[in-house]
Amino acid sequence: MTSPSPKGAFRIAIAGLGTVGGGVVKALVARGDELSRRAGRKLEIAGVSARDKDKARGFEISGWTGDAVSLGKGDADIVVELIGGDEGIARQLVETALSNKKHVVTANKALLAKHGLALAKLAESNGVTLKFEAAAAGGIPIVKALREGLIAQPINAVKGILNGTCNYILTEMESSGRAFAEVLKEAQAKGYAEADPTLDVGGGDTAHKLALLTSIAFGTAPDLNAVAVDGIEHITPDDIAFASEFGFRIKLLGVAKRVSGQIDQKVHPAMVRVRSALANVSGAANGVLVDAGEAGSFFFSGRGAGEAPTASAVIADIVEAASGGPSTVFGRPADSLARLDPADGKQAVSPWYLRFEVLDVPGVLASIATQLAEAGVSIESMIQRGRAPGEPVAIVMITHETAQHSVERALKAIGASDKVRAKPCMIPMES
Ligand SMILES: NC(=O)c1ccc[n+]([C@@H]2O[C@H](COP(=O)([O-])OP(=O)(O)OC[C@H]3O[C@@H](n4cnc5c(N)ncnc54)[C@H](OP(=O)(O)O)[C@@H]3O)[C@@H](O)[C@H]2O)c1
């Protein structure tokens, strides 16, 4: 057994003692000796902060301060920011710590997706590191894989299920046939969804994570504004059942692709083939597929959230910082990150699943077919489902490969008809 090197202790300040912060403290207490040996120096908790000092947390608290930002000016070597939020106290703390030459580890994707480039520059100009493995896919070491592993060949695409809440909801909708709202309620009761689920189900959280993965994969500054975002609120049990009939499953994907030298970033529900790796990421799990060109395709899956997996990623970052591991934030010096040149995502071509809820009256189908044809959308197959008299009828079509803008144009025209009872649904089908 080797003992820690004579280097001084590595002093860790932890701000935020909730799900992730609590997990980090517990892991450092339980496995401190082994982790210190890995780091080559003793890891020591120098201070902690949260909102409520008296909250029962299941571990002893020492080095408490009620002023989280002060941890960024104290005597710690590293500040671990686990409060959350893209502004406010989290941003102040990270900026203060980096300016005071302290390494920073964070799980805060919202902060980095918005301010990543500025923070990376601040870290580098102060000669410290800013690490965020836990921010992208919880316990899956995808940041490390993209930043240090898959670097020899240009990456063509990164495609991921990056939000466990959405994946849980879609999985439950499929297995039980229940509607989105009902399953969301259950997910909230079980702690899989926040009281305000908007960021998750609306696709915003996936967009934060995708912006970070895009940056590392393609060498561009994170650009959240260049991500087109659609969530899962409009997915119905019908969509899921129809998908299954066609041999597909619906997943919320974050997709970043190289398209003729530009980058297309999208978050949207997509139909993936039931036998594909992504289709088999179930429940609250995450999965990421990386197309690394000649090096091949690589698939990573595992737990994307929760105390232990997320703390595992944070601990890995702390140990790497303590042992003087790689220092660039997004895999190359911040000054060499290119400005992201966004592709026109509406040019993206794929087969589409279309669903129309229409009144069961003569001529509706013919009029839909005409409007699709006028926009250049050709149909490969169609299913029409009868309902009880007086209820709208579902018409589902699968198109041949068509550009997104053509399908959108047709659906806008079709949706304007008073015979069409709900906004038509379009979902790309992954090849
Ligand atoms: N939960 C996950 O599975 C997961 C996965 C990946 C990434 N993340 C990210 O990790 C970060 C933390 O998430 P979490 O789930 O651990 O959140 P959480 O359970 O809500 O914990 C937040 C912590 O921040 C503390 N806090 C809030 N305001 C504060 C303030 N003004 N000063 C000091 N402390 C303050 C809270 O104090 P009290 O305890 O006293 O209320 C709490 O300990 C977020 O950025 C999140 O996006 C979470």
Describe this structure in words.
The protein is of the alpha/beta class and 431 residues long. 36% of the residues lie in helices and 23% in strands. It contains 13 helices and 17 strands. It has a 6-stranded mixed sheet. Helix 12 packs antiparallel against helix 13. The relative contact order is 0.13. The N terminus is likely disordered. The protein binds NADP nicotinamide-adenine-dinucleotide phosphate. The site of NADP nicotinamide-adenine-dinucleotide phosphate has 25 residues, from helix 1 and helix 4.
Put the structure in a nutshell:
This protein is α/β, with parallel strands linked by helices. The protein has helices at 19-39, 88-99, 109-125, 133-137, 142-149, 164-176, 180-190, 198-201, 204-218, 237-245, 307-322, 364-374, 404-415; strands at 10-15, 43-49, 78-81, 103-106, 130-131, 157-161, 227-229, 248-259, 262-273, 285-291, 297-303, 349-350, 352-358, 379-385, 393-399, 402-403, 425-428. The strands form four sheets. A six-stranded mixed beta sheet has the order 7-9-8-6-10-11.
Order of helices and strands: EHEEHEHEHHEHHHHEHEEEEHEEHEEEHE
- Report low-confidence residues grouped into runs of 5 or more: 1-5
User: Which ligands does the model contain, each kind named once?
Assistant: NADP nicotinamide-adenine-dinucleotide phosphate
What share of residues are in beta strands? 15-25%
Structural class: alpha/beta
Given the C-alpha coordinates, what overall shape results? elongated
Number of helices: 13
Number of DSSP-assigned strands: 17
